[in-house]
Design a protein that fits this description.
463 residues; 14 helices; five-stranded mixed β-barrel; BirA Bifunctional Protein, domain 2; alpha+beta
Length: 463
């Protein structure tokens, strides 16, 4: 007796075969003729398997009363052709076991629509809903696609540290990690002696694995890191999280055009893989969440990404008639509304902006000869705006030291990073893609808190 997942049963189950299925009850309907219909789901797909349980099934009378929405069951039976519309097969039960009961009066996931705000409050149960089951499956396929993309190109997967003493972005928005008794310190002193701390110095959760990835890129070749990152940004927007997952490839001997080409191929590969692996889930998102999702994704696949210098993007924004909430002028970073205008209204396709002002970008980006810009890029897509940020890295020691001074960074804290420029420096480049931002784009979900299993935001660290 095998125990296949329900998605396999619905697609490939052989008529007449005997099998056991396990899962959670979505609904139960009782017939006056003395049998029950159970809709069973195990999280493997959007669809439910209909199960017919006759009254002569052993233990039916004692067990069926416990088969309520949310209860877990194991059912054996014979797979038969279904006479109902919209379903290929159904299971004629021969045995029924209730594994876990549910109080129907208190179970919060009844068969009705719930707001996403409410479902965030029950993040331990929301994966059983249609929307969040689909989000979970799509997120899984995206993660698999990310690994396959880089592994098929002979990139080395590395694990960079979660705890760091370097602020990669230089923004200072880092979560401090300490074992010191801060309450006691506050009582006796206003100055903290980090020499007494666990690591002997001030340490924080990482905002990026990029700097460490550069070590391996300049040693073992193209590599990528894929893991959690943290940012103590006091933001409650639908686009920001305090804890999120980043994939960050680093490539030796790459310059900015190579970086752009890889980023475009990366985005397109992920989209292709999701559309191929999750057609039912994607149809659900297009029907229930955003009816432009499939059209937007196909637009990305069908068009080459436009390459546009930042300076020309500013000129376009200045000439357009659209009124924006935030100012746009040379030297300012673009806001989401500006990025979406370029991709959704002006070009109507993905855009890669490059050569950003030096003053608004981190210290590690390669400085152009004009003295004003750096070889940075942002990949912009419709509905989301920026989805990838990257750059060619500064490989000249003297220029890197100059940029550190401009950004008020202590070279002593980055001695090892400077060593990479002292000993066999090479041109290299990389980028970062936020997994949650990608899941948002692919699914059409508007709030980033709904595309990660357990969102971490200001004043929210439940579960």
């Amino acid at each position: 007796m095998t125990t296949p997942r329900i998605d396999r049963v619905l697609k490939e189950g052989e008529i007449g075969s005997s099998l056991e299925v396990r899962g959670w009850v979505r609904t139960r309907r009782d017939s006056k003729q003395g049998f029950s219909f159970i809709e069973l789901n195990d999280g493997s797909c959007m669809g439910n398997l209909q199960i017919v349980v006759d009254a002569d099934v052993p233990g039916y009378e004692d067990s069926i009363k416990d088969v309520t929405t949310g209860a877990s069951v194991a059912i054996e039976g014979e797979l038969k052709e279904s006479p109902g519309k919209g379903q290929r097969v159904e299971l004629q039960a021969t045995s029924l076991r209730v594994l876990g009961t549910t109080d129907p009066e208190t179970f919060p996931l009844q068969k009705k629509r719930h707001s996403f705000e409410f479902l965030r409050e029950i993040a331990h149960l929301r994966p059983r809903s249609n929307t969040f089951g689909a989000v979970t499956r799509v997120r899984n396929v995206i993660s698999r696609s990310i690994h396959n993309f880089f592994q098929s190109r002979d990139f080395v997967y590395i694990n960079t540290p979660i705890i760091t003493t370097s602020d990669c972005e230089g923004a200072g928005e880092m979560f401090q990690v300490t074992t010191l008794n801060v309450d006691r310190i506050a009582e006796i002193s206003t100055k903290i002696d980090y020499a007494q701390d666990f690591f002997g110095k001030k340490a924080s959760l990482t905002v990026s694995g990029q700097l460490e990835a550069e070590i391996y890129a300049t040693s073992v070749g193209p590599c990528y890191t894929f893991g959690p990152t943290f940012r103590a940004e006091n933001s409650n927007t639908t686009r920001h999280l305090a804890e999120f997952w980043m994939v960050e490839p680093e490539m030796p001997f790459y310059e900015l055009p190579d970086d752009m080409d890889l980023a475009e191929a990366f985005i397109k590969t992920i989209i292709k893989d999701v559309l191929e692996a999750c057609p039912e889930d994607m149809e659900f998102f297009n029907k229930r969440i955003d009816n432009t999702v499939l059209e937007s994704l196909q637009n990305v696949l069908d068009n080459d990404f436009i390459r546009l210098p930042y300076t020309e993007a500013i000129e376009l924004l200045e000439k357009c008639d659209k009124k924006f909430e935030y100012p746009h002028e040379w030297g300012r970073d673009l806001q989401s509304e500006h990025e979406r205008y370029l991709t959704e209204e002006h070009f109507k396709q993905p855009v890669i902006l490059y050569d950003y002002p030096r003053t608004i970008k981190p210290f590690y980006m390669y400085c152009n000869d004009d003295g004003k810009t750096v070889r940075a890029m942002d990949v912009l897509v419709p509905r989301v705006g920026e989805i990838i940020g990257g750059s060619q890295r500064e490989d000249r020691l003297s220029m890197l030291e100059t940029r550190m001074a401009e950004c008020n960074l202590d070279p002593k804290e980055y001695w090892w990073y400077l060593d990479l420029r002292r000993y066999g420096s090479v041109p290299h480049a990389g980028f970062g893609l936020g997994l949650e931002r990608m899941v948002q784009f692919v699914t059409g979900m508007t709030n980033i808190r709904d595309v990660i299993p357990f969102p971490r935001t200001p004043k929210n660290a439940d579960f």
